[in-house]
Amino acid sequence: MSGGGELRHHTPGDPGLVVVGGGVAGLRVVQTVRQEGYTGPVTLLGAEPWLPYDRPPLSKQVLTGDLALDATGYHPASYFSDEIGVDTVLGVTATGIDVARHRLLLADGDALPYRALVVATGSRPRRLPFVSPADGVHVLRTREDAARLRQDLARAGRLAIVGAGFVGAEVASSAASLGVEVTVVETAPTPLVRAVGAVVGAELARLHTDAGVRLVCGKAVTGFVGRDRVEGLTLDDGSVLEVDLVLVGVGVVPDVEWLQDSGLALDDGLACDDHLAAGADAVYGAGDAVSWPSARLGRRARSQQWTTASDQGRHVGRVLVRGREEAGPFDHDLYFWSDEYGSRIQGFGATAGEAVVLSRDHAKGSFLAGFRAGDVLTGAVGVNAPREFAAVRKRARTDDSWQAATQHLPPLDVPLPAGADR
């Protein structure tokens, strides 16, 4: 495996860097190698016909009409061509990598030579395992997805969301603000219980119900009603939920099938090491498509968060120019955020398992919960508690002991749950 620093020096005729994927991870790679002083060729290839754009607003401001689709772009074409000198190849799909010959294979039969290659192809939405009607059933990942969903929301009275994850919750919030009747169907007993545990999940459930959104938990969708357009959902208890529109938000899968014949290791995405190298000479990964050994979690991880993808892109850029030793291993506290029903949700670290409520203010609609393993704070989730959350996150960077990280917080304004230990 390469020691990194493939782009430390540039020679005439060098094919340079090729980045596959036009999301935030790919964008950060090309920006960072330029900032680090690399002057050779850089090519950014994306399967979508758009220059890199910001995905988080698609489920929020774009659906509510507060932000135009065109306004989600990070930079105009002139930024890439004139300011950072990056060639953009859009609307072209990669189909494989010839690692021995350093060539990226494309769907149009062409191939791009590379000196260094970064896989940043992201992920795609999971689909339900049964046939859906032609119209009215949506997923949300791309600009096109958001445009179609927004158009349907404008004429829909009843929306069902399958899955109470963050994307589903954000769409529920946006749709409710538009006056749409929203029902969220979740197989787990509590929203996001696998991600943040029952205590925090129950707090997040209140955001839905307080906004008039119906939660149907502990039930699974077994099929669609309707031939040409969706008219309802059948549930595993035999009931039928009548709807005009459905969003399927049951998670994502890493977009790495195109690497099956490359010889690269696939393990919940492209398997990278702690420097984000992919096990072949000069091949790296960043973003949703990548798993890596997380020192914080003590296991291989794959993050779906914007901040992780952005920071991984920057880290790969530094490894490519500075080398592994100078750049160091990739480390991240897995920070995430979500905006729902006028509330800001923030989290970091390992948040699976049960939490202890550390601070709560009912008048402000705020709370902060911490996750622990013995005497160690492993993570935290806050709602409308930016100061408290920031303080705990900052302390955890230097001393992650439970006592040190959670001290000097505002008092609880309700009794702690029985058996909880602050």
Explain the overall architecture.
The chain is an alpha/beta fold and 422 residues long. It folds into three domains: 17-124 and 253-322, FAD/NAD(P)-binding domain (3-Layer(bba) Sandwich); 127-250, FAD/NAD(P)-binding domain; 336-405, FAD/NAD-linked reductase, C-terminal dimerisation domain (Enolase-like, domain 1). Helices cover 24% and strands 27% of the residues. It has ten helices and 26 strands. The protein has helices at residues 24-35, 61-64, 77-83, 143-153, 166-177, 193-210, 306-322, 324-327, 386-398, 402-405, and strands spanning 17-20, 42-46, 87-90, 94-98, 103-106, 111-113, 116-119, 123-125, 137-138, 158-162, 181-186, 214-217, 221-225, 232-235, 240-242, 245-248, 252-254, 270-271, 283-285, 290-294, 299-301, 336-340, 343-349, 355-361, 366-373, 376-383. The strands form seven sheets. The chain has a five-stranded parallel beta sheet with strand order 3-2-1-7-19, covered by helices on one side. Strands 9-16-10-11-12 form a five-stranded parallel beta sheet, covered by helices on one side. Strands 22-23-26-25-24 form a five-stranded antiparallel beta sheet, with helices on both faces. Helix 6 links the parallel strand 11 (181-186) and strand 12. Helix 1 packs parallel to helix 7 (306-322). The N and C termini lie far apart (47 Å).
